[in-house]
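Thread amino acids onto this structure.
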């Protein structure tokens, strides 16, 4: 995103704030169900444009807002009308831009209920990090919700948002300016490969589903989608300073009573950590995913939270 586009998107975000815009993003299945209700074929307000991703007529919005959308490159002409190519979600007092619904593209920037659970769990974990980190990183930061939460909580810290997706970093940069969070820096990196040095805090909310198309924004790799999460945990612990914290939110596909993701990490946790906690935040998420290829023997997908402290 060039500076002109970024400045226009920033101005658009400020205009939405001034208009009192508020939108909590739901799951894709809920989004689809609500949009399919009679009367929701087109939108008549800002939430429909920038939240529900519905088509709209040019006279719905003030000319100034339409011009900002054009300048930012987020206005699309489709067969059924104009559409925004970004959504704007509220997270407490923050406004976070991310990809419009539906998110089909490989470089889509995802935000949803998992983001809210991740941020809320991370905030609870802050109670155990004392004065806070000196240097922190959010691996796979997307639009920056997690990294922004850290940067605003600990303004003395150097916070890095790392993602392999340039589109995610473009939106995260605008979101950081909206927050504002001047202590947040952004890096293009495949997990830790593009990052130097070590950290006091490593957080991540990575993709964890099995996607036959292997789209980066949602595919967690092998091990029923847990491979990426396991790699982040192992590499994150290796890059932590003594006493530093790893905080990982992910989804685990469970085929029975055993948690194979946790079992795969136990040797690493035992070798490198004096203390760690692991809990199910929600026992049953993305139930619709169980009908997809790769889930034939899976009973449920659980949202889990790992907080490990490096020895």
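Threaded sequence (311 positions):
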């Amino acid at each position: 995103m060039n500076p002109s586009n970024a400045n226009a998107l920033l101005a658009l975000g400020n205009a939405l704030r001034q208009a009192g815009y508020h939108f909590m993003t739901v799951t894709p299945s809920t989004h689809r169900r609500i949009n399919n209700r009679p009367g929701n074929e087109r939108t008549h307000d800002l939430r429909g444009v920038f939240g529900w991703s519905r088509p709209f007529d040019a006279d719905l919005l003030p000319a100034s807002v339409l011009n900002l959308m054009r300048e930012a490159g987020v206005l699309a002409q489709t067969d059924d009308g104009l559409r925004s190519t970004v959504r704007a979600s509220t997270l407490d007092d923050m406004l976070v831009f991310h990809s419009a619904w539906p998110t089909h593209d490989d470089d889509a920037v995802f935000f949803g209920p998992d983001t809210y659970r991740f941020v809320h769990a991370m905030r609870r974990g802050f109670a155990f990090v004392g004065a806070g980190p000196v240097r922190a990183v959010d691996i796979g930061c997307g639009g920056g919700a997690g990294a922004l939460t850290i940067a605003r909580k600990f303004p003395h810290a150097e916070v890095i948002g790392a993602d392999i997706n340039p589109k995610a970093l473009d939106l995260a940069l605008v979101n950081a300016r909206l927050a504002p969070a001047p202590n947040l820096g952004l890096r293009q990196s495949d997990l830790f490969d593009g990052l130097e040095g070590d950290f006091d805090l490593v957080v991540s909310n990575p993709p964890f589903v099995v996607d036959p198309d292997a789209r980066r924004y949602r595919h967690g790799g092998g091990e029923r989608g847990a491979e990426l999460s396991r790699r982040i945990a192992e590499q994150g612990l290796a890059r932590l300073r003594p006493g530093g914290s790893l905080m990982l939110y992910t989804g685990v596909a469970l085929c029975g009573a055993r948690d194979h993701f946790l079992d795969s990490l136990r040797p690493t946790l035992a070798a490198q950590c004096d203390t760690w906690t692991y809990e199910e935040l929600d026992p049953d998420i993305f139930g619709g995913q169980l009908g997809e290829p790769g889930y034939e023997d899976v009973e449920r997908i659980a949202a889990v939270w790992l907080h490990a402290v490096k020895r």
